[in-house]
Write a structure and sequence with these properties.
Blueprint lengths: L2 H24 L2 H10 L4 H23 L4
């Protein structure tokens, strides 16, 4: 297996983990109170969701299209 596919798989797994952590953070009491009063998620939760989404997409692209011979 080529190193770009291995990197893609690692990014894909890491991105999914960050997305799950961000999704679980949205259900916490503190997060719900912050969203109720401020109208948005906290900075930490947003960064988990954004970074997880970007890592998942990049990992998927590298895994599928990583090596062209």
């Amino acid at each position: 297996m080529h190193w770009t596919r291995l990197l893609g798989i690692a990014l894909l797994v890491g991105g999914i983990i960050l997305l799950v952590m961000g999704y679980n953070a949205t259900d916490s009491l503190g997060e719900e109170l912050h969203q109720e009063f401020m109208g948005r998620y906290t900075e930490d939760t947003r960064m988990y969701l954004i970074a997880g989404g970007v890592m998942t997409v990049v990992g998927l692209v590298l895994t599928i299209f990583g090596v062209r011979r």
